[in-house]
Design goal:
The structure holds two protein chains of two kinds.
Chain A (H helix, E strand, L loop, with lengths): L9 H10 L4 E8 L10 H7 L3 E5 L3 H9 L6 E2 L3 H9 L3 E2 L14 H6 L1 E2 L2 E2 L2 E13 L23 E4 L2 H11 L10 H15 L2 E5 L2 H9 L5 E5 H9 L4 E4 L6 E11 L7 H10 L2 H11 L2 E2 L2 H7 L1 H5 L9 E3 L5 H15 L3
Parallel strand pairs in A: 1-2, 1-3, 8-9, 8-10, 12-14
Antiparallel strand pairs in A: 3-12, 4-12, 5-6, 7-10, 7-11, 7-12, 7-13
Helix pairs in contact in A: 2-10, 6-7, 7-14, 11-12
Chain B lengths: L1 H11 L1 H30 L3 E3 L2 E3 L5 H8 L1 H34 L6 H9 L6 H12 L4 H8 L14 H25 L3 H9 L4 H29 L3 H6 L7 H9 L5 H33 L1
Antiparallel strand pairs in B: 1-2
The chains are: A alpha/beta, B mainly alpha.
């Protein structure tokens, strides 16, 4: 859920899904819409002269069910929350780090988070931050220093939260003072759910993708949102006075996605590693940060980008950051169910 | 060789030719419609346990679907929205069908019907997004009303709620209501209208005593055609429904995907189908009774 779907409207996703098949059948990548962008793996095209074949999905569960049903692919692009489940179901297998040229540059914290008993399951590719984002021309800065503003009756009908269980609960856990959801207790879960239930009263709409949120905020209908860093970046570029505050007293959140090695392979693995190696090049980090507004999995390249990363809301912050790392699957399934109950108004 | 000759004879019979003709579509319907439906029914009695399916038959999914407040509320909300959509669509479509049937010259009727379908050449998603533009915070409706000085603040009750779902669906399904009503109106013998006028009916009485009763089969058909699909629609509520506009179909989609509980999704789907079937049967029964009482 936390991924590049974020900048694509649902309609565009469907169009992309039907038209994104490229020529080279030697590598099949199961990916989010719009990741079939040649600038994300220029090294691969230089080496093989052609794009890999892409098959698109709009939601990770859809991709998971496709793989379980026997779809043959070489690589897939899940986000942090799905990896353990996919691994337990046996649809993905570990990578061989010695075949990844820039393995030492790859974000250590993230790659180690997916170092299970039998090896590394995820090469972190893209990441971003989720934070309180507001219309600076209509809301005073002093009002948005705490996440509790989402409960303020003054903003009833003027706030928006993503239709995404991980982001929503990241917000709720932060708001009730739990900054690491792997340590969340039953009581934390109840408190977070109650908080979301209260926030629901103020929510105008649960935004599904960045374009929808941009419309909601651009018109002034929504003044305060819980949004990805790209929203403030792209909306400011369009001339809107939209600012994100990642340093609210309770903190903010971050998410990441990456490539996983599919067990039911369509082809020899060599091209899959070429693709990963192409993705990890510093020039791709530059492109991803400056054009997409996302972070890149190559930590060394990110550090070299310096201010570019800070400008798009990916720098260090001094408040707690709830990292959307894998959590207990029982708790997550309950979060999913509870979020839907809350959204339905119960 | 009595057997083979009997077979040869049977092969020449009308029964064989009938069967041969009907078999391919029958098999097609069986594999494409009955088999998936049977799979859904089967699923609804199983239990999902994280990654594995427990195949012990159980009624638990149905118990959950029928007793938990959230599913009851969503089901009732869906029925209410569908009923309102059906009413709005039929009431708004009737005058159009009436105009085309009674006022447009016979030579131009086909052209008119053709023109009515033109807006529906655009993708449905596109039309939903257009409604969002029209109903939005700084959209066409709010912009006009504020420009005229009729309102100070933009109206917010027109988008991201059930009203928006009803409006968008009514617009989308209008041609499916116009056509059956138009056909029913076309079949009315115009001399009956003259007769009622000769016997002293004014235009209003004539409409209610002759035109409307004779058009009733078309109206009921339109109602069924609109009601059944709208209860299963999940795109419209997702895009214009907002926080309180989600319907049962959204919940079914969610169970199959994010919530990872296909058996509960199947039980909800079967329950919704049962309810729709019962309502449709009532409609059809009303229609038959109506026709019989007129005959």
């Amino acid at each position: 859920m936390n991924s590049g779907i974020r900048n694509v409207a649902a309609g565009a996703a469907i169009l992309a899904a039907s038209s994104a098949w490229a020529a080279d059948e030697g590598l099949v990548v199961l990916d989010w819409p719009s990741y079939d962008d040649e600038f994300l793996f220029p090294g691969y095209i230089e080496k093989h002269g052609d794009m890999p074949s892409f098959s698109m999905f709009g939601e990770e569960e859809e991709a998971f069910q496709k793989l379980r049903a026997g779809f043959k692919a070489d690589l897939a692009h899940p986000c942090s929350q799905s990896v353990s489940k996919w691994r337990e179901a046996g649809v993905i297998e570990p990578f061989d780090p010695s075949r990844i040229e820039r393995w030492d540059d790859v974000n250590a914290a993230v790659k180690e988070a997916f170092n299970f008993d039998d090896g590394y399951y995820l090469v972190p590719a893209d990441w971003g931050t989720t934070s309180l984002t507001y219309r600076a021309d209509l809301v005073d800065e002093s009002e948005v220093q705490s996440l509790q503003v989402f409960l303020d009756p003054e903003y009833a009908g003027r706030v928006s939260i993503g239709d995404n269980v991980d982001d929503a609960y990241a917000l709720a856990y932060l708001a009730v003072g739990q900054t690491d959801w792997t340590k969340a207790t039953e009581e934390d879960f109840q408190k977070a759910s109650d908080w979301l239930r209260q926030a629901h009263q103020n929510v105008r709409a649960y935004w599904v993708d960045g374009a929808e949120l941009a419309q909601l905020m651009g018109s002034g209908e929504v003044l305060i949102s819980w949004a990805w860093n790209e929203t403030a970046v792209t909306m400011s570029a369009d001339g809107h006075n939209v600012v994100s505050n990642r340093e609210t007293i309770e903190g903010s959140s971050d998410w990441f996605c990456g490539y996983a090695n599919v067990s039911n392979q369509a082809n020899d693995e060599a091209k899959a590693y070429d693709f990963i190696n192409a993705w990890m090049e510093p020039r791709v980090a530059d492109y991803l940060v400056n054009v997409w507004g996302y972070g890149h999995g190559n930590a060394t390249a990110m550090a070299d980008l310096g201010d570019d990363a800070i400008n798009v809301g990916l720098g260090e912050v001094s408040v707690p950051v709830l990292s959307q790392v894998p959590m207990d699957h029982n708790l997550r399934e309950r979060m999913i169910a509870e979020f839907e109950v809350i959204k339905a108004g119960f | 060789m009595p057997n083979s000759s009997r077979f040869a004879k049977w092969r020449r019979s009308e029964a064989f030719r009938g069967l041969a003709l009907a078999s391919p579509p029958f098999l097609y319907a069986l594999t494409m419609l009955a088999a998936p439906l049977a799979a859904v029914v089967l699923f609804s009695f199983w239990t999902q346990d994280y990654l594995t399916l427990d195949r012990t038959p159980t009624w638990n999914n149905y118990k959950t679907a029928w007793t938990e407040a959230i599913y009851q509320a969503l089901m009732l909300r869906s029925l209410k929205v569908s009923a309102l959509v059906t009413a709005a669509t039929v009431i708004l479509s009737f005058p159009i069908a009436y105009y085309v049937s009674f006022r447009v010259s016979p030579r131009r009727k086909t052209l008119w019907i053709f023109l009515i379908t033109i807006p529906f050449w655009t993708s449905y998603l596109m039309r939903i997004f257009l409604w969002k533009v029209i109903l939005g915070y700084n959209g066409v409706v709010n912009g006009s009303l504020m420009g005229l000085g009729l309102i100070e603040e933009p109206l917010t009750f027109i988008l991201y709620n059930q009203n928006a779902v009803i409006l968008t669906l009514s617009h989308a399904w209008a041609p499916f209501a116009i056509l059956p009503i138009f056909v029913a109106l076309e079949r009315i013998d115009r001399s009956l209208l003259e007769a009622s006028e000769d016997l002293g009916d004014g235009p209003v009485r004539r409409f209610f005593r002759v035109t409307l009763p004779l058009a009733m089969p078309g109206v009921l058909a339109a109602a069924v055609i609109v009601f059944i699909p709208t209860i299963g629609d999940y795109v419209t509520p997702r895009l214009v429904g907002g926080p309180n506009g989600l319907l049962i179909a959204n919940m079914i989609e969610l169970q199959f995907k994010k919530a990872n509980n296909a058996p509960l999704g199947a039980a909800l789907a079967i329950s919704a189908m049962l309810i729709v079937t019962i309502i449709s049967i009532i409609f059809l029964w009303l229609n038959r009774r109506y026709i019989r009482s007129r005959a």
